[in-house]
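Lecture notes, part 5. Sequence design as translation. It can be helpful to think of inverse folding as translation between two languages: the language of shapes and the language of residues. The source text, in structure tokens, appears below.
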């Protein structure tokens, strides 16, 4: 039987059921490999993998000591991909990350020319550790890499290796000496992944597992070609029109300026809603969620499962929300409860009514 991780049938199968089953098996094996080192954090791992399978980036937010860095580096080791860790500090310069031009002399002719020396960002998986601890100038150097998959130096564009992912970490409690990410850069992250404290049983297992001489090693399972084929398969997952419209209603309900009829919680607590990129990422993430759930098409429950990590960093709350202790997660949860899921029958009826009126 072929290995579901290395066989092309995993992502090139013509039968959607077979493809979904193979990808689910691959995901489980990666999860099992990561859990040799990481205890618990199943949802965090799933969301990071979904971002990878969609070709997106993820921002992992959590207090110190929750193994954010270890989780990302362990996940990178399960993939046969290049990995770079960049520790963001207040004195980090853009060229320290992207690379710089140096003068190189040809000793045979004596001529000199500029040569671009690539920085650590020229890798497949980038761990941007404590991304909010570096000034905006260096943070902005990531924008081109994250969006365009390239670095421009001296007027020359240098493409980054494919696949390319940025997995960044951020500490939400210590803000002294930090530089909050601007909304334009936050919007480049597909997911805002919240990592929480482990349960009592998980913490006991962590203590027992990390205070011995035994060191767990992980095995690389997926190649870059495998990841890119999975990305292609994710985009092929079908989504019905009425489910896509459900995404639109959800995202557009966060924008207080588009219509007079808005949920009360949005009118009261939101100053700026999510943009079109949120709709794109919800649909892509829902397609990945559908595959990992063993489904062959996107259903409303897949939309609901990915709404929080996609939207929580794209909704800007106002002073009323801060005063009342209302978070973006609470706003999104309220919208998910209030916005109805339109059935396909309702869609057909509305289309027929439009034809009759015309």
């Amino acid at each position: 039987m072929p290995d579901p991780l290395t066989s092309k049938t995993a992502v090139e199968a013509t039968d959607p059921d077979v493809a979904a089953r193979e990808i689910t098996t691959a995901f489980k094996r990666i999860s099992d490999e990561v859990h040799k080192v990481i205890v618990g954090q199943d949802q965090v791992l799933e969301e990071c993998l979904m971002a990878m399978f969609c070709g997106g980036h993820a921002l992992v937010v959590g207090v110190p000591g929750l193994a954010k860095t270890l989780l990302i580096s362990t996940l990178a080791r399960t993939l046969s991909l290049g990995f770079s860790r960049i520790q963001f500090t207040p004195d980090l310069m853009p060229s320290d990350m992207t690379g710089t031009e140096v003068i190189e002399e040809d000793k045979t002719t004596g001529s000199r020319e500029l040569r671009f020396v690539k920085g650590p960002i020229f890798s497949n998986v980038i761990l941007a550790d404590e991304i909010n601890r570096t000034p905006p100038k260096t943070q902005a150097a990531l924008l081109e890499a994250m969006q365009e998959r390239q670095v421009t130096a001296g007027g020359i564009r240098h493409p980054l290796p494919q696949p390319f992912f940025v997995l960044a970490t951020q500490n939400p409690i210590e803000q002294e000496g930090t530089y909050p990410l601007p909304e334009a850069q936050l919007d480049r992250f597909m997911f805002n992944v919240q990592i929480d404290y482990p349960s009592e049983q998980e913490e006991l297992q962590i203590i027992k597992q990390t205070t011995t001489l035994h060191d767990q090693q992980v095995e690389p399972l997926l190649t870059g070609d495998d990841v890119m084929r999975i990305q292609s398969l994710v985009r092929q997952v079908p989504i019905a029109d009425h489910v896509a419209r459900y995404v639109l209603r959800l995202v557009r309900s966060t924008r207080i300026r588009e219509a007079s009829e808005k949920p009360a919680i949005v009118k009261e607590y939101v100053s700026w809603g999510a943009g079109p990129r949120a709709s794109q990422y919800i649909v892509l993430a829902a397609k990945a969620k559908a595959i990992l759930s063993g489904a062959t098409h996107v259903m409303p429950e897949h939309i609901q499962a990915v709404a929080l990590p996609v939207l929580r960093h794209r909704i800007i709350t106002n002073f009323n929300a801060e005063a009342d202790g209302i978070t973006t997660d609470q706003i999104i949860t309220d919208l998910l409860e209030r916005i109805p899921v339109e059935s396909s029958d309702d869609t057909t009826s509305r289309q027929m009514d439009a034809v009759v009126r015309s």
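The translated text above is only one of many valid answers, since several sequences can fold into similar shapes. The longest helix spans residues 16-34.
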